[in-house]
Design a protein that fits this description.
single chain; 330 residues; alpha/beta; 2 domains; binds oxa(dethia)-CoA
């Protein structure tokens, strides 16, 4: 009998820039304070990619290199590379193409995926389907954002949250029942009015007016996003567990999008998971949008064991949200 092919995660790579932007630094830029930021978000510092000519692909390249080194493969063995990002180097060509060029990858097709904070889960589900089809053997899925490029450092409601980084996973075919097991992804364009960047697209092409109106920065109406995020992420995580007949005891790890510690805590509570099963690094990196989930896997990979059931969960701009079940191993 032919065995079912699943997409196993066989390596995790990551990269965060050296430069740290601390709460103390932000106190000098806007009217805020360390205590407020820590208690309302859980963030202590974020990483910032600085320098002329530095873009999101400069986060992706070292993350993919790290991944290839850990797996012991040549980048030319990759047959598809997907980059989830809301901060592409430019509108086109896509950042995945640019990355392949910088790494000398010749044998892959590559494309970007835009689903804000849920981008990594959307891309992971897509990459897994390519592996499951039997036509692809090494698919790299990256979540990467240079949020500092679209943050207004005079707006205290957003500049305290975001940071820069990239995380990447390698997907390979598996017939032993490991890898991406299930995904429950959602979107609701009605949420678009709460979290967006208006300028630079075909609706509001860059002009002196769009720049004066600060349309090339993130806008977020924090409270409604917070409320939708708490219910959205918790509901979808819970439903994913139920439809896979998993109790809290069966789940080894929750890997939540790192937007706000309070949202993470509420999601874990709803799923019945204790703190020690929740991957969290928001205090060090802030919200890196598409990069938060793979950066958690990168940071915690030594603690994960073969056979662990891991629930990845995200909520973000769109609205987009979802949860993915991974059984760790290869
Ligand atoms: O990753 C994509 C999805 N995004 C999210 O999931 C983010 C969801 N939203 C949030 O995490 C939170 O809404 C924020 C962290 C953005 C804001 O926290 P909040 O607890 O919702 O604050 P708030 O907007 O209700 O503001 C409370 C107070 C206000 O003052 P008053 O009106 O009570 O006097 C704000 O002006 O805190 C004030 N405030 C600040 N104070 C010090 C807002 N930002 C700051 C700040 N420092 N940086």
């Amino acid at each position: 009998m032919e065995q079912k092919i699943t997409a196993a995660i066989t390596a995790v790579g990551g990269y965060v820039p050296e430069e740290r932007l601390t709460n103390a630094d932000l106190e000098k830029l806007v009217d805020t304070n360390d205590e407020w930021i820590k208690t309302r978000t859980g963030i202590t510092e974020r990483r910032i990619l600085r320098g002329e000519g530095m873009a999101t692909s400069d986060l992706v390249v070292p993350a993919v290199k790290d991944l290839c080194e850990r797996r012991g493969i040549d980048p030319n063995e990759i047959d598809c590379l997907i980059v989830a990002t809301v901060t592409p180097d430019m509108m086109f060509p896509n950042t995945a193409n640019i990355t392949c060029d910088k790494l000398g990858i010749k044998n892959a097709w590559s494309f970007d995926m835009l689903a804000a904070c849920s981008g990594f889960l959307y891309a992971l589900t897509t990459g897994a389907a390519l592996i499951e089809s039997g036509r692809y053997k090494k698919v790299v899925v990256v979540g990467a954002d240079k949020m500092s490029a679209i943050v207004d450092y005079t707006d205290r409601t957003t500049c305290i949250i975001f940071g820069d980084g990239a995380g990447a996973v390698l997907l390979e075919p598996n017939t032993a029942g490991f890898g991406v097991m299930d995904s429950l992804l959602k979107s609701d364009g009605g949420g678009g009015k709460y979290l967006y960047m208006k300028g630079g697209g075909s609706l509001n092409p860059a002009s002196a007016e769009t720049i004066a109106a600060k349309q090339h920065y993130i806008f977020q109406d924090g409270q409604p996003v917070f409320k939708f995020a708490v219910t959205g992420m918790a509901d979808v995580g819970f439903e994913l567990m139920e439809r896979n007949h998993l109790t809290a005891d069966d789940v080894a790890w929750l890997v939540p999008h790192q937007a706000n510690k309070r949202i993470i805590d509420a999601t874990a509570r709803r799923m019945g998971l204790p703190d020690e099963k929740v991957m969290m690094n928001i205090e060090r990196y802030g919200n890196t949008t598409a990069a938060t989930i793979p950066l958690c896997l990168w940071d915690f990979q030594d603690k994960i064991k073969q056979g662990d059931n891991i629930v990845l969960a995200a909520f973000g701009g769109g609205f987009t949200w979802g949860a993915t079940l991974v059984r760790w191993g290869s």
